[in-house]
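Entry:
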Amino acid sequence: MVWPWLAFGLLLVASELFLPGLVAGPTGVAALGTALLAYWGLPVWAQFLAWVLLSIALILLSQRLVPKGPAQLEDILKESREARAVTAIPPGKQGRVSYLGSTWNAKCSIPDVEIQPGQEVYVVDRKGNTLIVMPTQLFES
């Protein structure tokens, strides 16, 4: 029963790049931990129970890392404005950027501009948990 937990865990951890909310990643890490318990020979019911409990604990722990209010997020945004696109950001749609050590939903401030993966961007604003970004070359010109 080790391989299914490993595959499930890796799939969830990888999907955190595309599914916002810090839920898929922690549940994937919990599945990887459960694979270790399965390797040690725990029965299937205990593996499932361990996965559920680990998932809940890791989700709660990861939620503590997310800024709670606008003032706390504003303090973070003042530290740095530079980010890098992780996924493409199509015109008028959302993508993901790497910013201050984690990935965020992001949307380009110019509706008809596409941002490519790996492209440097500046954070110019935020709307909820979505960062509003602008390509570095447009910002500097």
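The chain is about 45% helix and 20% strand.
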